[in-house]
Amino acid sequence: MANGKKLLRLSGILIVLAGVLGFHMEALSMVGTPQENGNKRPDLIMIDTIAAQEKLELPAVVFLHDTHTKAMAEQGKDCTACHQKTEGSMSYKFMRTEDGSSKKLKEIYHNGCISCHAADAKAGKKTGPQVGECRSCHMADPEIKAERAPAGMENILHYRHWDSKLIAKDEGQETNCGSCHHVYNSIDKKLEYVKGQEENCSACHTATPEGAVKLTTSEAYHGQCVSCHLEMKAAKAEKTGPVNCAGCHGENQAADLKEDNAAVMKKLGGKLPRLPRQQPDAVLLTAPVQENVAVKTTMAAVAFNHKAHEGYTDSCSSCHHKTMNKSCSSCHTVRGSKDGGYVTLDKAMHKVDSTRSCVGCHAVKQKDPKCAGCHELMPKNAIKSKETCAVCHNGPASTSSEPVAMDASAKAEIASKLITKRPESPTLIAEKDIPEFVTINVLENEYKASKLPHRKIIMSLVNGMKGDAMANAFHSTPLTVCGSCHHNSPASATPPSCASCHGGKVQDGRPALKAAYHVQCMTCHDAMNIKKPASTDCTACHAKK
Asked: In terms of CB atoms within 10 Å, which end of the chain has fewer, N or C?
């Protein structure tokens, strides 16, 4: 009798285990084989639309977009099997263009998905969950997770679009910008293209659209881009853009796109043509005029080389991160404003740890091995000197109460003249006046004196700056290069020795002389990737006695 009960209990456990395994097998057959990277996929979408209106009764739905796209293609169907079109673009929403009540949404999803699955099952095709198999879609902790490579319209990809012969040209123009860029005409209540006012998509299409804007950033990108790519594919174009999630967001596909872009750049000789947007070559950046603000800005205006900077960035949004048609000071004011995230104009231009600021972007450049030897040990948040500021701020002085009274063309002309006056090579004292060798023997004890090839080091640094406009501009005085090692002494062709500040022990935060020598020299060798002599090769600098 006891054995019989044990067998019954064991049978019950096996039945439950089989049910659980069956459920997981059913769920896994529905989602297909994970792509890209183990159990991570770029096409995983968690459908939780109703959560915005009410608390979900069941977990969000696990939906694999590319799996469904492939199944539709095999049946001779396209995206319109699930997505409707509105104003020429595809709706990002499932079987609708607008959201409705939670009850309506449930009906749309359940009727749309399950009826399709039922039809496929009736036809003997492999398909998804049927009526009653709720947990096959609604999973609290799905094994597959979403992982998407970032996708964006960087300059090279932008060029491939506006240079394409497949995209229709704007009416009466040689450009095709109007195929993607548009503004809302509030009078005619329609979208239209206005030349010269091309804007970042995200300037209007935000995560929470307002006013006449109906689509979020994601909806706008997917609706417009994918629709166009599908049209190209239907027209049997030789090369089209991606039509599935992995095409833009898959790690492998992102690597393939990078290779394609590199091939295009090689054909162009490594330099992109300028955008046909009629953007200025030079801009004079002046302080903004603000009413009821007592702060006066006396800093001189900046001549900004817009043309040169276009070639230094991967995308216009590197600087124009919110809008293309407004100045930085329209959001980043002297005092800070809500539109600018309360980041003041000063911080927006000079914040060292932000790649969107001028100084922050320059700081990234200073990490280049050719620059890092000197800049690695320099203080990052300190103004070096008034001369450093004057490299950029060398235009007409202005105040918030008395702005520079001139139009845009006059400002551009001044900026252009100031830019052309910038040095084309670093300024340096006569080579013969640079000591060829400097013997360091103050600490001679176990090791012989170190004979430093002083002139060779200086000329190597100067040669590394050749062709670098930013380096040439900032090394504009004969003794600027000397300041990398002689960092706290007055600028002089005969600076005091290191021992004049660094004694035999740590004092006032200054390292002792031995540490000062080694930190300065070894850090420079490491930062500049100098392999010979290695920073740890003691006898290469001073032979052992």
From this structure: N
Three-state SS annotation for 143-160: CCEECCCCCCCCHHHHHH
CA 152 to CA 315: how far, in whole Å? Answer: 9
CATH assignment of the domain containing 408: 3.90.10.10
Whether residue 410 is found in the same domain as residue 304: yes
Single pTM value for the model:
0.78
Domain membership of residue 274 (yes or no) is: no
- Which uninterrupted H or E stretch holds 514? helix 513-527
Final residue belonging to a domain, choices 420, 440, 460: 420
* β 145-146/89-90 pair status: unpaired
| SS3 state at 397 | strand
Of the listed ranges 27-36, 119-128, 362-371, 495-504, the least confidently predicted one is: 27-36
What's the 3-state SS for 317-352?
A: HHCCCCCCCCCHHHCCCCCCCCCCCCCCHHHHHHCC
> Which tens digits make up the pLDDT trace of 212-252?
898 889 888 888 898 899 889 888 998 889 989 999 999 98
Decide if 409 contacts 293 (C-beta within 8 A): no
Distance CA 154, CA 272 (A): 12
382 confidence band (pLDDT: 50, 70, 90): low
Q: Is 131 found in the same domain as 44? A: yes
Mark whether 475 and 349 lie in a shared domain: no
Number of domains in the chain: 4
Token pair, residue 379, equals 């203080």
DSSP structure string for 235-246:
TT-SS----SHH
Please choose, from the candidates 274, 277, 273, the residue with its C-alpha nearest in 3D space to the C-alpha of residue 194. Answer: 277
Which residues constitute the domain of residue 97? 29-146
Per-residue pLDDT reduced to its tens digit, 30-85: 344 444 456 899 999 999 999 999 999 999 999 999 999 999 999 998 888 999 88
The token pair at 157 is 């990809």
Q: How far is CA 196 from the centre of its chain?
A: 24
Owner of token pair 């456990």: 13
Q: Region of 278 please: left (phi>0), alpha (psi -120 to 50) or beta.
A: left
